[in-house]
Design goal:
CATH class of one domain: Alpha Beta
Structural class: alpha/beta
CATH topology of one domain: Muramoyl-pentapeptide Carboxypeptidase, domain 2
CATH architecture of one domain: 2-Layer Sandwich
Shape: elongated
Strand content: 15-25%
Radius of gyration: 26 Å
Distance between the termini: 25 Å
């Protein structure tokens, strides 16, 4: 589909993105479809149209602007083969009413009490639309979740997630629905009695989220429990996908991790198609998600929600997850992450076999082309340091801290897990004129000037430019090259962007 050039320098189609046209050496064609409406209510309608084109006898109705009563609803919706539609608290949206009519439903199940969805909405459904209405509600969100669980068919396992925030419950929702597990809710410090009763009756319980959202005391109160969590909502989303996802899934749903509505409506569709659903940021696909995409070879994506929730450039990052990893002081990668590396055919100023002679395989041919061009220009360019394992980065950083103090070490060296070298996408280069050192003086050599002028032609950026320390977090390093791809590197050079700004 025809698109336009974005600020990130890629052609973005309206519905599908075919990156092979732009990156024949990097990415196979991927498909990306955005399911969205002008607001959350209409996005839920569009999800229903996509998943239930031939209608359904039942519709689940939840409040559009608050999450508590709806969090546990996905397993019930999946059991009933029903979409989740959204409404305001006091009146039913015309778009929602029209979709209920299109679906041909004879029954609506309302999630939550009259404080969530009022009597007036219920009366409209019954009297104006001639629908059977069932309300599932309790005294609070925790009891409502337990009441929803009682509507499910027989189960022997359950999921427990925070009822005080929505991300973790939404991350597990599609998987729980697919397996028929109820989603029970808890506070951080105490498991409510309504949830306690049900977890006592199951053979296995999955606790979703870290101790920052669900305490150890709650974990101890849950029999036969297994905690599935990450360091934040996005890494928990990845941990859930690893634990429960199909290993052969080739499609991924993504939704914002900062609001509940799009992921809620989309979770039932993801359960229906048996695909994973993961949470992402509005302007960035988290590293945990990117690594999942790469490791699982995902080529098809459904983005839930409009550009107000997830920006229009998300396809760039979904299609090129590794070369657009952002690794800096704020964003890291797992200690056990090891990229696919090999040694490029370029000169090094040392002979010994060492891991730093290697580079991520996707960047190797482009580095070789860069060095071939430098040689044709009569330059003596050398590669000094490429891939660096977590363990080696830790040893380097620890040594610098010991010698110069932590403040200086953090300015010139990344903490382990936060080094670009661990991605294999970085290569430090040098020349004989600076005795093969990694020093600022390299910028004043013929080789340094050539690299600054031509690196982008081969897909590389100078990752830490002069006078950009306030953005990158690191002092000027004219020797540090990072592979991002030719189109992106050209765009960044033309617009004088650093990677943090490009991915913002």
């Amino acid at each position: 589909m025809i698109g336009t050039y974005s600020r990130k320098g890629l052609i973005i189609g309206v519905s599908f993105l075919f990156l092979a046209l732009l990156f024949p050496k990097v990415a196979n064609a991927i498909e990306m479809e955005r399911i969205s409406g002008k607001d959350r209510i209409q996005t839920a309608v569009e999800v229903a149209k996509k998943g239930w084109p031939n209608g359904s006898e039942v519709v689940i109705l939840a409040r559009a602007n608050d999450f508590p009563d709806a969090l546990a609803g996905t397993p019930l919706a999946h059991q009933e083969n029903a979409p989740i539609l959204l409404t305001s608290s006091t009146y039913i949206s015309s778009k929602t009413a029209q979709e209920i009519a299109r679906i041909g439903a004879s029954k609506v199940i309302i999630l939550g009490g009259k404080g969530a969805i009022s009597d007036s909405v219920e009366r409209h459904l019954k009297e104006e639309m001639d629908l059977a209405v069932q309300r599932v509600s309790g005294q609070d969100r925790y009891e409502t979740a337990a009441k929803i669980a009682n509507e499910l068919d027989t189960y022997d396992r359950a999921v427990v997630a925070s009822g005080e925030d929505f991300p973790d419950a939404l991350s597990i929702s599609a998987y729980a629905a697919r397996e028929g597990y109820p989603i029970l809710l808890t506070t951080k410090g105490k498991l409510p009695a309504s949830s306690q009763k049900l977890v006592n009756e199951t053979s296995r319980n999955y606790l979703i989220g870290g101790e920052g959202v669900i305490s150890e005391s709650v974990d101890n109160a849950i029999p036969s429990s297994e905690r599935v969590s990450g360091s934040d909502r996005f890494e928990t989303s990845r941990a859930v996908a690893d634990e429960f996802g199909r290993k052969d899934a080739d499609q991924l749903y993504v939704a914002t991790g900062f609001d509940f509505a799009d992921a809620l409506a989309g979770s039932v569709l993801a359960a229906k198609t048996k695909d994973p659903l993961m949470l992402i940021e509005k302007n960035y696909v988290p590293n945990a998600t990117k690594l999942f995409i790469d490791e699982n070879g995902v080529k098809s994506f459904r983005v839930l929600g409009g550009t107000g929730a997830i920006d229009q450039y998300v396809g760039t990052e979904l299609s090129l997850p590794i070369q657009l990893l952002l690794v800096n002081k704020q964003r890291g990668i797992p200690a056990d992450y090891v990229p696919n590396v090999r040694e490029p055919d370029v000169p090094f100023p040392f002979r010994e076999d060492h891991e730093k002679r290697n580079m991520n395989a996707i960047a190797v041919p482009h580095l070789e082309e860069l060095f071939q061009a430098a040689e044709k220009a009569g330059l003596d360019l050398y590669a000094q340091s490429g891939y660096r394992s977590y363990a080696r980065q830790k040893a380097i950083h620890d040594r610098l801290v010991k010698q110069y103090g932590e403040a200086y070490a953090n300015r010139v060296s990344a903490k382990p897990g936060h080094s670009e070298h661990q991605t294999g996408l970085a290569m430090d280069v040098t020349s004989p004129d600076v005795n093969y050192g990694l020093v600022e003086e390299f910028a004043n050599t013929d080789e340094g000037r050539w690299v600054a002028q031509h690196a982008h032609e081969y897909g590389f950026i100078i990752r830490y430019p002069e006078e950009r320390e306030s953005v990158t977090g690191y002092k000027y390093e004219p020797w540090h090259l990072r592979y991002v791809g030719q189109t992106i590197a050209r765009y960044m050079k033309d617009n004088e962007r650093v990677l943090e700004e490009y991915l913002r």
